[in-house]
Write a structure and sequence with these properties.
- The structure holds two protein chains of two kinds.
- Chain A is of the alpha/beta class.
- Chain A has a single domain (about 5-300), classed as P-loop containing nucleotide triphosphate hydrolases (Rossmann fold), CATH 3.40.50.
- Chain A is built from eleven helices and twelve strands.
- In chain A, strand 7 (about 195-200), helix 7 (about 210-225) and strand 8 form a beta-alpha-beta unit.
- In chain A, helix 4 runs parallel beside helix 6 (about 180-190) and helix 5 (about 150-165) packs antiparallel against helix 6 (about 180-190).
- In chain A, about 45% of the residues are buried.
- In chain B, about 70% of the residues lie in helices and about 0% in strands.
- Chain B has one domain (about 95-365): Orthogonal Bundle (ABC transporter involved in vitamin B12 uptake, BtuC), CATH 1.10.3470.10.
- Chain B has a two-stranded antiparallel ribbon with strand order 1-2.
- Chain B contains 14 helices and two strands, in the order αααααββααααααααα.
- Classes of the chains: A alpha/beta, B mainly alpha.
- The interface of A and B includes residues 118, 135, 139 and 169 of A.
């Protein structure tokens, strides 16, 4: 973890016996399962969104959820964050279990969970024109009473610095561009300082530099003992940054494992219903996924 | 951003000084919040003293202040004579206090409603909660029920106000969000139904009842008494007591219900508490002053322009600002055409209507309107 949060942890553990701090997160051993979903099945309106999904994410791991549109990536993320909306229709029943930190999801209270896992939703909307600084500060709300204002301020500043939005601190959210909004929301999630991060397409609105920046941050958090689940569309990013990937297709896990094992031309072509080629990067060996394009698209243009 | 909170331009070389995490922006905002709350509090006291002196029987402000301090056990300056004292304590002061309380209730209820709907256009009058509560009040007048004394009207207004709020909330929301258009159209429909109910009861009422009912529809604090003040006070205090517990959580709710829950907010419980507090505040105001529109819209908007949308400042400042606005409006209502009196609701609507146009214009110019 970062210096700031390390200091905070040390301070917190020193005063822990003195303060009323129910349900504070305990340190987690690297490699312990943080998320364990078993047989998760969700049906809505006659459609099976998830069909018996098993998924385990351990601390120290960045897991990428990939798959075509409508494969159930976001639904799975919502199942893990406890946000599946709507009730099952007639004759439909959700089944399966989700355990976070070895306790069933339903047994956690919202305040307890907020100290342990942060969620970045796909779309960022804010009802009132809060400033960037205020919005990122909202990430510290769960810690009210168990961290000092100075610690909060330091973590907020650090989170803004990591995603490069410090210079926007006093701007109002509605005046920001799409990419800036996405980064501000990520900063809010980082300021929450949790050991589990659930990110739904954090790179969708970002340019190449910021895509790399964001996944770099996620990877760093994971290698320092956090656990990260990230929904991605860009298979190249998934291959480069994820420790493991889970390929979803039609509400099922079609394959999971390291990018090198899972990203094969035959599997991806079948799942995406489009021919793709997978080539190792000439220098790093990281798999590159290239969709096959009709000759018209790739033909060399006449020199001018 | 405005002049007070300017900071070095984006990407400038000068690094922010290490001042314990307080950027110039937050400092400016905190300073402004303090200034705003102070100005509103002082303004409220000053205008109260002036308003208590103005009327058909004028009392100098100095004497009003002396009489107030005398009641608090401090003997400073010349006291008013016996008649003036009676006018002051039996007529003017109850009216001043009632106006402030009704304004505070409406201002804070408006701010809470906008927070819980996540929508800056929600207002008890606009979305029909005031009309709903008025129906409750008028049912009591019409049927002559007095089961609970002074409290009968409040209780009935509260039940109707709460039901209307819940109805609008459930009806205008879908997928965790409230669209502006749906909200306003729901308000039109609710106001139409309430208008029909009120019209029907007016039609079958005796002259005396009709006068009381008209009073409710136009809004007024002219019949203020200390017992009414005593009846509204606990409602106001109870309604305002949620502020310290939920102001921060309302900030989080502006991120949406899901994100608020992820930040540890028990959204369901908060919704229940805030809606109840809001209905209590609105109904108490409506029960004693009738439908006084736009206070809950105008006041929070102005305060957001000054200090930003944070609810920890917005809610108390809206209560103070609402009190100040209504007190001033009432002063205007009883002095502008003296000795005749203009209904209070007419004054606030005359002020609030143009403000609504201004908001509409500003929003259209900025983002092409509400959608």
């Amino acid at each position: 973890m970062t210096t700031g949060s390390l200091l905070r942890r040390r301070f917190a553990s020193a005063v822990a016996p003195l303060t009323r701090a129910p349900g504070r997160p305990e340190p987690i051993e690297p490699g312990t399962p943080v998320v364990r979903a078993e047989g998760v099945t969700i049906r809505r309106g006659g459609r099976t969104l998830l069909d018996g999904v098993d998924l385990t994410v351990r601390s120290g791991e960045l897991l990428a959820l990939v798959g075509p549109n409508g494969a159930g990536k976001s639904t799975l993320l919502r199942a893990v964050s406890g946000d599946v909306t709507g009730a099952p229709g007639k004759g439909e029943r959700d089944s399966g279990t989700v355990r976070l930190f070895d306790r069933p999801l339903g047994e956690w209270t919202p305040p307890e969970l907020a100290l342990r896992r942060a969620v970045l939703p796909q779309e960022a909307t804010v009802g009132f024109p809060f400033s960037v600084h205020e919005l990122v500060g909202m990430g510290r709300a769960p810690w009210t009473g168990s961290s000092t204002p100075d610690q909060d301020a330091a973590l907020v500043r650090e989170a803004m610095a990591r995603v490069g939005v410090e210079h926007l601190a006093d701007r109002r959210f509605p005046t920001l561009s799409g990419g800036e909004r996405a980064r501000v929301m990520l900063a809010r999630v980082l300021a929450q300082d949790t050991s589990l991060l659930l990110l739904d397409e954090p790179t969708a609105a970002l340019d190449i530099r910021h895509q790399e920046l964001v996944l770099g941050i996620a990877r760093t958090l994971a290698s320092h003992g956090g656990a990260v689940i990230v929904v991605l569309h860009d298979l190249g990013l998934a291959a480069a940054y994820a420790h493991r990937v889970a390929v979803l297709s039609g509400g099922r896990v079609a394959a999971q494992g390291t990018p090198a094992d899972v990203f094969t031309a035959s599997l991806l072509s079948a799942v995406y219903r489009h021919e793709v080629e997978v080539l190792p990067h000439p220098r790093t060996g990281v798999p590159l996924v290239v969709p096959l394009r009709s000759p018209g698209c790739t033909r060399k243009r006449p020199q001018e | 951003m405005t002049a007070l909170s300017q900071r070095p331009t984006a990407g400038a070389d000068e690094a922010p000084a290490d001042d314990g995490g307080v950027t110039p922006g937050t400092l400016g905002r905190r300073l402004r919040a303090t200034v705003l709350i102070t100005v509103l509090s002082v303004g409220l006291v000053v205008v109260s003293v002036i308003a208590a002196g103005v009327g058909a029987y004028p009392i100098p402000a100095g004497q009003v202040a002396a009489s107030l301090l005398d009641a608090a056990g401090l003997r400073i300056g010349a006291l008013p004579d016996q008649i003036a004292r009676t006018v002051l304590w039996d007529v003017r002061l109850p009216r001043v206090v009632l106006a402030v309380m009704v304004g505070a209730a409406l201002g804070s209820a408006g701010a809470m409603m906008q927070g819980i709907f996540g929508n800056p256009l929600a207002e008890p009058g606009v979305i029909g909660v005031s009309s709903g509560a008025a129906v409750g009040a008028i049912v009591v007048i019409f049927t002559g029920l007095t089961v609970l004394g002074h409290w009968t009207i409040i209780a009935s207004a509260f039940v109707f106000g709460l039901l209307t709020t819940l109805f609008v909330y459930v009806f205008a929301r879908s997928g965790g969000r409230t669209e502006v258009v749906t909200l306003l159209l729901t308000g039109i429909a609710v106001n139409a139904i309430a208008g029909a109910a009120i019209g029907l009861m007016t039609n079958f009422s005796q002259d005396a009842e009709i006068q009381t009912i008209t009073f409710w529809q136009l809004g007024s604090v002219s019949t203020a008494t200390w017992s009414k003040v005593a009846a509204i006070a606990p409602c106001l205090l109870l309604g305002l007591s949620v502020i310290p517990f939920y102001a921060r959580k309302l900030d989080l709710l502006s991120l949406g219900e899901g994100p608020a829950r992820h930040l540890g907010v028990d959204v369901e419980r908060m919704r229940l508490v805030i809606i109840t507090a809001m209905a209590l505040l609105t109904s108490a105001a409506v029960a004693f002053a009738g439908i006084v529109a736009f206070v809950g819209l105008v006041v929070p908007h102005i305060i957001r322009m000054v200090t930003g949308p944070g609810h920890r400042v917005l809610l108390p400042a809206s209560a103070l600002g609402g009190g100040l606005l209504l007190l001033t409006a009432d002063l205007l209502a009883r002095t502008a055409a003296a000795p005749a009196e203009i209904p209070l609701g007419v004054v606030t609507a005359a002020l609030g209507g143009p403000f609504f146009f201004y908001l509409l214009h500003r929003t259209r110019a900025k983002q092409g309107g509400w959608s």
